[in-house]
């Protein structure tokens, strides 16, 4: 009897971003100046949703379609959230090909158009699921330019990225990450740089600092944050933080 190799278990490529950065939504006809994206639900005259679009950058500023059922500004941590800067400017999903997303979008439209108790909480949770499912689609479609989205789309490298996201404080060795990705050390290093656009060490350092920025903005102490994200000392953390953001960690509380 021939034994078949067990399939590689799937890993969650997006949960780390939703854990680290809060998502909120505000209904608005156009993107608010400080929002990260504009979510549009497009449909027909009978309030039947047909398509959802997540727009960033100039696409969000210029968008003015006539068939908008609901428009909402999405806040997801700003530029410090890596997934925000990695997103394409225009992601559109037809609901005829996504029945689960259609059901959630229909609920979102109903909550947006009818004033009910708990409306704000319902809109926030439904929007989070819609954004999550749109990002899944973007990852499934891949990316043509090096960056985080390309890394999350890569059939092997995404496992190493998820490991870094889930355990940023761990002292990672290249050999461990290569093994997680199922690649040789040399092939892993080349593929990571070509696909993500930087080295694993540089990516991990940037991820740690973004997590630290979020924690400091919420009032955490510098020393505890430094240890939490994997820096050996508060001094080393302060130097790295200042290089990344242009001001010391204490400045995060005022930003």
UniProtKB/TrEMBL annotation:
Residues 158-255 form the HTH araC/xylS-type domain. This is AraC-like DNA-binding protein. It holds the Pfam family HTH_18. Keywords: DNA-binding, Transcription, Transcription regulation. It comes from the Bacteria. It comes from Paraburkholderia terricola. The keyword DNA-binding applies.
